Amino acid sequence: MLNIAVLLSGSGRTLDNFHERIEDGSLNCRIQVVVSNVDGVLGIDKARNYGYPTFVAKDSESTNAILKDYDIDIICLAGYLKLYTPPQNLKRNVVNIHPSIIPMFCGDGFYGDIVHRSVKERGCMVSGCTVHFADELYDNGPIILQKTVELDYDDSIKDIAGKVFAVECEAFPEALNRVDDKGIDFFWERVGS
Q1: Which element (helix H / strand E) includes 130?
Q2: Active site residue 19
Q3: Are 110 and 60 in a shared domain?
Q4: What's this model's pTM, rounded to 2 decimal places?
Q5: Alpha carbon of 27 to those of 44, 152, 168, 180: distances in Å?
Q6: Does a structural domain hold residue 136?
Q7: Which burial class, exposed, middle or buried, applies to 88 when counting CB atoms under 10 A from its CB (0-12, 13-18, 19+)?
Q8: Quick check: is 170 in a domain?
């Protein structure tokens, strides 16, 4: 079972998903702590209501000062809209989800509806999400899991976002279960990083 820290910046929809799946036994993790880089967001309220230790920290250094007090196997970037630098002992233990199939529509500046708008403008007929280990570059690091969704010609940006988020709710927990099963090193070694 993985002990996880959840880093968020917004509404906490991914936190909701994790919490529900932990409760129903389909996610083999324990949430040890939740940290937001934005004060006053809904995700903070949700975390407190679930009973998780919850903090606001504006930067990586402040976040890491909080995390050192918890037993953490994986740091999950769950809608965390800031480049995060982990402590040295957790450098390979940060997992992110991106709302496209990497290597398409990713990198600095590609997040949320910017990604979905780019997918629509390009006329893509599939989109999806990628769960990957994070490193010092945006949307880089070994891929753990990717899932796709089919798109229709008349899908709006909102439609695309909804389809992708639905598959994200399956992919992120599944990816964490794979990390729990195979271990962190498996994913880093399979790509030669």
Answers
A1: strand 126-133
A2: no
A3: no
A4: 0.93
A5: 21, 31, 14, 10
A6: no
A7: exposed
A8: yes
